[in-house]
Structure formats: structure tokens, C-alpha cells
Design goal:
With about 190 residues, this protein is an alpha/beta fold. It has one domain (about 5-180): Rossmann fold (3-Layer(aba) Sandwich), CATH 3.40.50. Helix content is about 30%, strand content about 15%. The chain contains eight helices and six strands, in the order βαβαβααββαβααα. The protein has helices at about 20-25, 40-55, 65-75, 75-80, 130-140, 160-170, 175, 180-185, and strands at about 5, 30, 60-65, 85-90, 115-120, 140-145. A six-stranded parallel sheet has the order 2-1-3-4-5-6, sandwiched between helices. Strand 1 (about 5), helix 1 and strand 2 (about 30) form a beta-alpha-beta unit. It is globular. The model has no long low-confidence stretch (mean pLDDT about 95).
């Protein structure tokens, strides 16, 4: 069985965020926890994500947001081998924000799994042009949303049915979504 692994970004994903709702309501979903959400350290974050993935009995699908996307791209090959697909939403640009600088440089090589990168035309944490460059380098399908901010609660994103549909489009999430409550799909 495929496990959905939710990878929040800098400062975590609070109440009402689509990641929090998915973690609470999608059966079997697992959420990555970090020791320090405020002052992120790449080595520690990547280790936490890797440990969470390796603890799963089978393959995983990643649903990452913001800095969680960038941390996911830093995973070592033995961890990445367990990933069947990834939904990478509103990736951060660590070169634009000093506190995230430990995550730079961002890897610019093809990911060894299928991925969909979703970015917004007005994300304050990553210009859409940078997100597009990530998508090209990573071999990700690129979905550009118009004026969607950072695709979080502040930008009006709660359950986010489009996100679930994109997750399903990866072709590996059907077992996860088959038992998803209807309230998330509306």
C-alpha cells in the first residue's frame, strides 16, 4: 500500500491548512515532524523527512509545501528510491530569504520519481519564474495558479480539492484517496 507523507514547510502548516486537513482526514497519512520549525537546518530537516519515509512499510507519495519541497529534493538516493510520486506546492526560494539559506543551493537535477510542481503567479516566497526553473530541472509537470499567493490558509486554501486531484493525477494515490472523506473533495 502507498502511504501519503505530508512534508510541511518553514513554520509548519497550522490549523485549516490543506496539509493539516489532509493529515487529519486521509486514512494512513503520515506527517513529518521537525524539532525546529522556526530556524530550519537542512541536515536535521532532511534527516526527519528521510526517517519518516523509511519507517513506512512500502512506497510513499509526498505532499510537500514551501521549504518542505526544497528539503525533499535534498533527500539521499536510498530514501528517494521509496518515493513513487510527489506533489510539490509553492516551493520556497532559499536564496531569497536569509533564514532559509542553509537549503541553498537548490538541487537542479531531475528527480527520480514523477512529480507535479504547483506555483502561484504572486507567491511572495518564490517568483513563478524560479518555480518554473525548478520544474524544468526536476522534470516536474508545472501547474501555474493565478494570484494564489503562497497556496496556504492566508491565501484562502483550506481543503483544496484541486490539490487532491493533482495528487491523484500522479497515478499513485488512488489507494489513499479511495477512502478520503467527501468533505475534502468538495
Amino acid at each position: 500500500m502507498v502511504t501519503l507523507v505530508i512534508v510541511p514547510g518553514w513554520r509548519d502548516s497550522g490549523p485549516g491548512h490543506w496539509q493539516t486537513l489532509w493529515a487529519e482526514q486521509i486514512p494512513g497519512a503520515v506527517r513529518v515532524h521537525q524539532d525546529d520549525w522556526i530556524t530550519p537546518v537542512r541536515k536535521a530537516w532532511v534527516a526527519s523527512i528521510g526517517q519518516t519515509i523509511l519507517e513506512q512499510p512500502g512506497p510513499v507519495v509526498i505532499a510537500a509545501h514551501s521549504l518542505g519541497c526544497i528539503a525533499t529534493t535534498h533527500l539521499p538516493p536510498e530514501v528517494a528510491a521509496k518515493i513513487q510520486g510527489a506533489l510539490l506546492v509553492a516551493p520556497a526560494d532559499p536564496e531569497r530569504r536569509g533564514i532559509l539559506a542553509d537549503f541553498a543551493p537548490v538541487p537542479y537535477q531531475r528527480l527520480p520519481y514523477r512529480s507535479v510542481l504547483v506555483a502561484s503567479s504572486n507567491d511572495p516566497f518564490c517568483p513563478v519564474r524560479t518555480a518554473g526553473a525548478y520544474a524544468r530541472a526536476w522534470g516536474s509537470e508545472f501547474v501555474r495558479l493565478q494570484d494564489a499567493g503562497h497556496i496556504n490558509v492566508d491565501a484562502g486554501f483550506g481543503p483544496w480539492p484541486l490539490g487532491l486531484a493533482l495528487l491523484q493525477s500522479l497515478g499513485v494515490a488512488h489507494t489513499v484517496l479511495a477512502s478520503t472523506p467527501e468533505s475534502l473533495l468538495i
